[in-house]
Amino acid sequence: MQFVLRSLKIKNSLIMIAVMVPLIVGFLAYDLYRQSVSMRRALTERGIILAITGAETAGKILSDGAVSGGLSEEQLFDTNYQPIPNTNPQRYHTSYDAYTDKNLTRVQDSYLMDDIIIYAVALDVNGYAPTHNSISKIGYGDNANRSKRIFDDPVGLAAVRNEETYLFQEYKRDTGEVIWDISAPIYVNGSHWGGFRVGFSIAETNRQIAALRNQTVTGGAALVAALVILIIYISNLITSRVKSLEQAADRIAGGDLTGSGLEDLEKFQDEVGRLTRSLRNMADRLRQLVEKTGRSTGQVKNYTDRLKDSMQQATYTSSSAAAKMSELSETMKKMESGAGEVVKASERTMQSLARAEETSSMFLNQMKSGSLIMTRAGESLKELESHIEKVGEILLYISQISEQASLLAGKTVTEAAGISCAGCNFLTLASEIDRRAKDAAGATKGLASLFDNARKRAAQAAIALEKDRQVVSEGYSAANEVSESLKVIIVGIENLFKMAGEVGASTRHISEGIAGLDVSAWEQANLVQGFTDAVKQLEDGIDEMQKTLAPLKL
């Protein structure tokens, strides 16, 4: 269904058929109605003419009967109807019925040559039919049997007593058929004698109308079929060129701007030909515009790529500057923290220096008070040295005494061996030993006294030295704390100097990044200006392209 709706040929055919066929059908229906009405009117007019003609003819024949038929006017207007025996329905004779049988039968029967006429008969003013048709139509009863009867029904009486030009009625016969009855008055020698009635078959009329309708419908169907074929042919004839134009437009849309395939269509002088020439001119113009647009697009792409690179560079520079600023922020935080540490170390150093100052004061006072002790210790040491020398001499002396004792012991042993000298030398030796022993005891006592003095002096010197050692140790501790604090301060200051260097480097990087951003911004401004000019050229080309495409708006 979608394919059908996309086909211009089928769509145009359907549109034309949808428009033309209803119009034709409507026209045919109207024409059929008009023809039916016209036919009915024609049949009515024919019936009126036939009735009037029959009335004139019957009046003339009856009038002639008074001249050549031997009938008087009284006989012609005889209403003394004589019943015919043994007839059912009742039939009658009059003075003139034999004359009418002879002269009206042929005239009245001639009307029945028309299939639509059921009867055509003359009746007097009382509805008496002296002579009826001898011809009968199938399905409408026996007309001959209706001769010489009186039809005094309302329709019959209205028909024979009417003095107007004609009277049109719908008549239901006693046999049941419904008929159109058209009557005209009969005059004999200027007097109203009766009426001439013509009966039209409604069924035959409808059959003729139906035949006319069928004929019209058949002709209309043939006309519609011929019209559909003609519409399809014309649509195909039109759309074939449009199809060629569509194919050429597809080639143009596909990039073929040479206008090939339009040569055969350009020779036509109608709308398709003018559209083809416009399309050819548009294709040429588009080819020029495409080339111009291609150049403009290339410039735009070039500027776009350069602008993109510049923006990427600016983004990279901005990112680097942001990173450096972040590093600078971290470094400043570290500097702040390092400065706090330096301040704390300085506070600790001040405290250590204060303690060192106190310790130094104590150390100086102690040194002043200890210098005398040290002097006395030096003197005691000198005395101790002299005492030690004396102790050495005593020890040497004791050693000699020991040697002598050893010699004495040896001699004793020897003399004990030789009893002969024992008495003489032993006493001497014992006296010598006793003397030496006393000397040794005296020396020992002196040595003990010296050692006691040395011990006391050494104890005093040790106490003084211990105090000096404590003062020196406290001073050393204070100095060590000061040294450690100074080291911390120095390290903090070195870190601060290092961080300050990093801050300076980061600041330089940030300055360089900002300078790079300035350069990138300047370059981007130039690129944007070039890009704007290229876009302006591209817009001009698009405007020209739109103006070129404007003639194609249908």
Q: Describe it for me?
A:
Helix 2 packs antiparallel against helix 7. This protein has ten helices and eight strands. The model has no long low-confidence stretch (mean pLDDT 76). It has helices at residues 2-6, 8-65, 73-76, 97-103, 105-111, 154-161, 202-253, 263-266, 271-417, 422-549; strands at 82-84, 91-93, 117-124, 128-129, 149-150, 167-172, 178-188, 191-201. Helices cover 76% and strands 8% of the residues. By secondary structure, it is an alpha+beta fold. The strands form three sheets. Strands 3-8-7-6 form a four-stranded antiparallel beta sheet, with helices on both faces. A two-stranded antiparallel ribbon has the order 1-2. A two-stranded antiparallel sheet has the order 4-5.
Beta-strand fraction estimate: 5-15%
| Overall average pLDDT | 76
Number of strands: 8
Specify the structural class: alpha+beta
SSE topology string: HHHEEHHEEEHEEEHHHH
Q: Based on CA inertia axes, which overall geometry fits?
A: rod-shaped
Q: Report the span from N to C terminus.
A: 26 Å
The DSSP helix count reads 10
